Amino acid sequence: MEQPEVYHWWQRGIIYQIYPRSFMDSNGDGVGDLPGITAKLDYLRWLGVDALWLSPIFPSPMADFGYDISDYTDIDPMFGSMANFEALVEAAHARQLKVILDFVPNHTSDQHPWFLASRSSRHHPQRDWYLWQDPAANGGPPNNWRSVFGGSAWEWDEASGQYYYHAYLKEQPDLNWRNPEVQEAMLEVLRFWLDRGVDGFRIDALRQIIKDDQLRHNPPNPDYQPYQDPYHQEFPTYTTDRPEVMDMIARMRHLSEQYEERLLIGELYLPIERLVTYYGIEGKGVHLPFNFHLILTPWEARKIAALIDSYETALPPDGWPNWVLGNHDQPRLVSRVGERQARVAAMLLLTLRGTPTLYNGDEIGMHNVEIPPDKIHDPFEKNVPGKGLGRDPERTPMQWNQSQHAGFTNGHPWLPLANDYLTVNVAIEQDDPVSMLSLYRRLIDLRRTAMALMVGSYQAVEAEGNLLVYRRSYQDQQFLIALNLGSEPQPFLVETPGRGKVMLSTHLDRDGEVVEESFELRGDEGVIIRLQV
Ligand code: NOJ
Question: 511-518: which pairs have CB atoms within 8 A and are 24 or more residues apart?
Answer without folding.
Answer: 517/493, 518/491, 518/492, 518/493, 518/494
